Amino acid sequence: MKKLMLVVLIGVLAVLTACGSKQADGGGDKKKITVGFGVGTYEEQFRQSILPILEKQGYTVEIKTFSQNMQVNPAMKEGSIDASVFQSTAYMEAINEEINADMVGIAYVPGAPQGLYSVNHTSLDDVKDGTTVAVPNDPVNQERALRILEELGWIKIKEGAGVADFNINSMEPDKFNIDIKILDPAQILVSLQDVDYGVVNGNYIANAPDRKITDALKIENTPMQHRIIVSINKKDEDTQWAKDLKAAYESKEFEEYILGLEKYDGFILPEAWENN
């Protein structure tokens, strides 16, 4: 009888230990998470303000930075990262469909709007037929960029043009016959001397030591679908770590950090901060 009780006790302890290990490392209440970023300012925001908030709550966080944005979401799908901070809702939904992923957004992040910049012109009045304008090569950011040109009356976007499948054939000339140059988003800022104008994603401007978002000749009015989000796999939506990550991004502490730095002037701020 004593041997039987000992065996049962050992079995119970083994189950409890296994459950505790699962909860600590892989369950919904785990305290170790991995967050992925593309190149840009969002990792710096996280490292300097969000990370300390999470560490105070007992989290151990691994930060992974990818050299290309297209690498981030496959890593999320395969489970090598738990969350990412680099993309908009529109981009996420397009990738969900493309790679059969199931990501959701849980919080908005202070995001940098796209803007039209130039080192060769000080005014938009210099535009004419043949003016060269650099725009991003990925469909979502390219659509955003060309909407800026459409608002200026330089081009027209064809009726029915999508977002995920947007391409240069989705536009046509309006007032001018603009020469569109398609470049990797990270290359446009350093290539401004080679074109008349360029539409630059704001996070690259914020990371440049001699640039400000407010220096743009035209800043987009960023729609909600193009604002930067914290994204996770849908299966993790109700986990405690996801709730704590969301709360950190919506916290007064993070708001004060962003508002205290001049480099974030011109960023689009989360509406959740209105409740702080």
Molecular structure report:
By secondary structure, the chain is of the alpha/beta class. It has helices spanning 2-25, 42-56, 72-78, 89-99, 139-151, 185-188, 202-207, 240-249, 252-259, and strands spanning 32-37, 60-65, 83-88, 103-108, 115-117, 132-136, 155-157, 171-173, 179-183, 197-200, 218-219, 228-233. Strands 2-1-3-12-4 form a five-stranded mixed β-sheet, sandwiched between helices. The chain has a five-stranded mixed β-sheet with strand order 9-6-10-5-11. The protein is globular, with a radius of gyration of 23 Å. It starts with a helix and ends in a 17-residue tail after the last helix. 34% of the residues are buried. Mean pLDDT is 89; it is low at 1-26. This is Methionine ABC transporter substrate-binding protein. Residues 1-24 form the signal peptide. It is a lipid-anchor.
